[in-house]
Each structure stands twice: as C-alpha cells, then as structure tokens.
UniProtKB/TrEMBL annotation:
The protein's name: GMP synthase [glutamine-hydrolyzing]
Function: Catalyzes the synthesis of GMP from XMP.
Annotated coiled-coil segments of the chain: none
Assembly behavior: Homodimer.
Provenance organism: Humibacillus xanthopallidus
A single Gene Ontology CC term: cytosol
Keyword Transport: no
Binding site for ATP: 220-226
HAMAP family membership: GMP_synthase (MF_00344)
Pathway stated in the Swiss-Prot or TrEMBL entry: Purine metabolism; GMP biosynthesis; GMP from XMP (L-Gln route): step 1/1
Gene Ontology molecular function: any one: GMP synthase activity
Domain GMPS ATP-PPase: 193-391
Length: 517
C-alpha cells in the first residue's frame, strides 16, 4: 500500500481517498507508528500529511529520519513537507510570512517530476506559518510563491518530494495531477486499484476467511449492506443467507427493490421476515423520538435473532455451521476507531448490535478497506441495481422518525406517497448527486386550513428537508431550484389528499439536525 502518515489534522483520510482516485491502494497510519512497523507493511510509497501549524510547536510530532533513509519514495505535504525538509538538513524558519487560503505558485515544469505537463502558474491552497527557507542538500526547488521561496522540493535520486501546499484539496487546481505524478512517475507505482481488481482481491480474501462455513447477513436495503452481501455472494455463493426484516418503515418501492431486484441481480438466498404489524403494534401511540428509536432497535434485534436461530438450525450442519455474520463496516469507521487490526467490535448500530450469547458469530467485514465512493463502484461492478447503489443515506428507524407524532399505517401511507413524489421530481431534475439526502417529514399532529376546489380543507403539512453535506456531520440546506420545488409542491398537494401544505426547511446543521427527530 501507499501509507498516509496522519499528523493529526483532518487531511489524512482525504489524502488516502485522493491516492485511491489515482487508482493506487492507500491506508492511513498514525504518526506514532514506529518506522520499523511502518516498513513492515512494505509500503510502495509514504505520504506525510499536513498537521499542526508549526514544527516548533510544543508537542509537534517528530519525523524519524530513518523513514527517509529506507529507500521508499516519500511525499511530504504542508507540515509533512516542513518536517521532512528539516529532517533532511534544510532550514525551517518562522518568517512571519503566513499564507492562508488560495495563492499562486510558480512551478518549474521543465525539470520536474511533480509538475511535468502542468501550467507554470497554478492556484494552490496554503495554510502555514513557518516556511522552508533553505532546501535540503541534493533537493531541487521546483516551486515558489510570493511568500515562500521554497514551496516544493524534489530529489529524484532518493525519490523524496514535498510541497508546501495541500494538493489533496480541490482548491489546489492541479493537486490531483501533482499527486498522480508523484505516485506514477516519482514512485513508479502502477495504477491498478480498479473496481474489478478490488472485487477480485476481496473475493479471494473472503473465500480464505470463511472457508466452507455458512454466512449470515442482515440486509437493510441500504448501499453498504447490499454491496457487502453481493460481494460475499460472489465469493461463497450459496453458503450465504441474507435476512431482510421488513419493518414497514421503508419508503415506497424499497422493500420490493430488495426482495426482487437485488435477488434477481445477485441470486442471494434471501429470507424475508414480514414484521410490519409487529413494529406498528410496538410503536402504537409513541411520540417521543428516542423511545421510537429504542423500540424499533429492540424489535429489530428480536426479529433478526429469531430468523438467525432458524437459519442456524435449518441451514447449518456440524461440518458447515453458520459461523459468520457480514458487517458493512467502512474504512472511515476503521480509521476513526484507531485503525484497529484486531478483532472488530460489532458497531453499536441498532441493526445487528446486541445479539445474544448463544449466537456467537465471527465477523466478515468485506468493506472495511473501502471508502463510500469505492463501495458504490464495487456495487456497480457486481451488478447491484443502480437504485440501490446510488441510494441516499436513510436512517435505520426509517419513516418512523419522519412522522412527527405517533406512527400508524395511515400516516405511513401518506408520508410514503409524498416522499415518493419528492424523490421522483428531484431525480427528474437531475439533482440526486447534488443533494446528500432529502427527508420528507409529515407533521402528523399539525393541521392547517386550506382550500381545494370550492371546499375548505383541514390537512397536514409536509416539510421538505433537502441538504447538501459531505459527511452528515455538518450540512447546509440545499438550494433546490424554485421550479423544482413548485412542481413537488403542486404534485404533493394534488395527489396526496391529506396534505394541503408543503413547506421548505432552510436551516443548516448546526443548529438543526438533518432529520426532524
Ligand atoms: P442528524 O439528524 O443527526 O442525522 O443530522 C445525521 C445522519 O444520520 C442519519 N440518522 C440516522 N441513521 N439511525 C441511523 O441509522 C438513526 O437513528 C439515525 N438518525 C439520523 C440521518 O438520516 C443523517 O444521514
């Protein structure tokens, strides 16, 4: 792999993603990892990320010079560039010339590995206080900016490179090309991390892991569990059984997409548990959001547990027990939980958390090396239907937390129709990839007066909550064109009799959350 050494800023994961966009496999490692351990991973190259503002700051992480002497190509960015320059004998000074944000770099394209084939002047994104004032011996200076005389260094002989800016952020116009030049030319790595190779590798390792044993998977209808199941299916075929708990809180068409389209596309052995009534009964009269979540989570576990027992009993045998449970854990979860390589904990995710002791499963986590966009690519490669692959995030408790007030079958039917219209129109307008997700919320206990034809109505409002986001941690309300909003509003109030008002939520997160409950 290419190892991205994380110096503690928020950039390491982004760099790892950019490396993979250059079709090279990458992993994030903490800066505290000893050089020997790092080299034991046999890295094809090492990238030093940005980090704290100054190499002179108290507790600024050190760079062990041994890392630069191992013969492995190294690329330092921002803090990584300064730490590297200093370790190689260059000078880093507090020049007082701070540069933040966009600036222009003049680059030497003639005698450069990093900048070959690029414009001589490029907008780059900077964020630094200290500067490298003297390049290390043996390194050429191939870029300068107004405030930074040494903005890039290159040493082809030792294959050591660095830039003062952040090539991983989109504001750095040529950033991806600089990174590709390092990876493909400087480090000589072949770009072969493609979806079809990824699928082949994962299939091989799943086969090795589970052997002849049987595997169980809880399908939610979301992207991750669907792609994980499709991968395991490709690897071990009919050793896999999937369980889909239909809790009746999904949106229009979603249960059918899992029960029919997904099965047709992948051929998985699917057990569908129709638990709609059970969930409705348990939710009757409940209005508090956290209580709803708790009830839905508990019911889910009970239903899944029973299905799992039946499957262990029916499908397993002494020689091929049902021993494995598929989890859709993604790479960011792995990095955020410390990159642990040991036994993974089941996420406290309601889907499959808290299984009883007599159902001891080991985990198969086929997606644990992948970012979300890679999961989608792998899904497409495996032939998972596009409606599932491109599905927007949808909360586990589903429509249960999009009805403000108590949940019942009638209210679910109203919301399902309004939601289907909103989704259809957003898709028709080509906005699916611009919008992170668009909850449609039914204010079931609110009534407002309206007029339809010559009659007065007393109906419910629905709220449209389209948001733009990178990771759901923060979000902004999405600027959906007025015409699209108008069409959605007209259609919902015409086609869903019980709804006589459509309102738009224009709150960012924070202070609002994405969901209303
Ligand atoms: P909030 O509303 O907290 O949502 O801004 C952030 C993201 O999480 C989703 N969400 C949930 N997902 N179980 C889930 O699996 C839940 O209880 C839950 N609540 C919110 C929400 O849709 C958004 O993507």
């Amino acid at each position: 792999p290419v190892l991205v050494v994380d110096y503690g800023a928020q950039y390491a994961q982004l760099i790892a993603r950019r490396v993979r966009e250059a079709q090279v496999y990458s992993e994030v490692v903490p800066h505290s990892m000893p050089v020997a351990d790092l080299l034991a991973k046999r890295p094809a190259a090492i990238i030093l990320s940005g980090g704290p503002s100054s190499v002179y700051a108290d507790g600024a992480p050190a760079l062990d010079p041994a890392l630069l002497e191992a013969g492995v190509p190294v690329f330092g960015m921002c803090y990584g560039f300064q730490a590297m320059s200093r370790a190689l004998g260059g000078t880093v000074a507090r020049t007082g010339a701070r540069e933040y944000g966009k600036t222009t770099a003049s680059v030497d394209t003639a005698d450069s590995t990093l900048f070959a084939g690029q414009p001589m002047s490029q907008v780059v994104w900077m964020s630094h206080g200290d500067s490298v004032t003297e390049a290390p011996a043996g390194a050429r200076v191939t870029a300068t900016t107004a405030g930074t005389p040494v903005a890039a260094i290159e040493d082809d002989e030792r294959r050591l490179y660095g830039v003062q800016w952040h090539p991983e952020v989109l504001h750095s116009e040529q950033g991806q090309r600089v990174l590709e030049n390092f990876l493909w030319k400087g480090a000589g790595i072949a770009p072969d991390w493609t979806p079809s190779n990824v699928v082949d590798d994962l299939v091989t390792s799943i086969r090795e892991q589970v052997g002849e044993d049987r595997v169980l998977c809880a399908l939610s209808g979301g992207v991750d569990s669907s792609v994980a199941a499709a991968l395991v299916q490709k690897a071990v075929g009919d050793q896999l059984t999937c369980v889909f708990v239909d809790h009746g809180l999904l949106r229009e068409g979603e249960a059918e997409q899992v029960e029919q389209d997904f099965v047709d596309a992948t051929g998985v052995d699917l057990v569908v548990v129709d638990a709609r009534e059970r969930f409705l009964d348990a939710l009757a009269g409940v209005t508090d959001p956290e209580t709803k979540r708790k009830i839905i989570g508990e019911q889910f576990i009970r239903v899944f547990e029973q299905a799992a027992r039946d499957i262990v009993h029916d499908r397993g045998d002494e020689h091929h027990p049902v021993k494995w449970l598929v989890q859709g854990t993604l790479y960011p979860d792995v990095v955020e939980s410390g990159g642990g390589e040991g036994a993974a904990n089941i996420k406290s995710h309601h889907n499959v958390g808290g299984l009883p002791d007599d159902l001891q499963f080991q985990l198969v986590e086929p997606l644990r090396t992948l970012f979300k966009d890679e999961v989608r690519q792998v899904g497409l490669e495996l032939g998972v239907p596009e409606v599932i692959v491109w599905r927007q995030p949808f909360p586990g408790p589903g429509l249960g937390i999009r009805i403000i007030g108590a949940v019942d079958a009638e209210r679910l039917a109203i919301l399902r129709r309004a939601d289907a219209i909103a989704r259809e129109e957003l898709t028709r307008a080509g906005l699916d990839r611009d919008i992170w997700q668009c909850p449609v919320v039914l204010l079931a206990d609110v009534r407002s007066v309206g007029v339809q034809g010559d009659g007065r109505t007393y109906g419910h409002p629905v709220v449209l909550r389209p948001v733009a986001s990178e990771d759901a941690m923060t979000a902004d309300w999405a600027r959906v064109p007025y015409e699209v909003l108008a069409t959605i509003s007209t259609r919902i109030t015409n086609e869903v009799e019980e709804v006589n008002r459509v309102v738009l939520d224009v709150t960012s997160k924070p202070p609002g959350t994405i969901e209303w409950e």
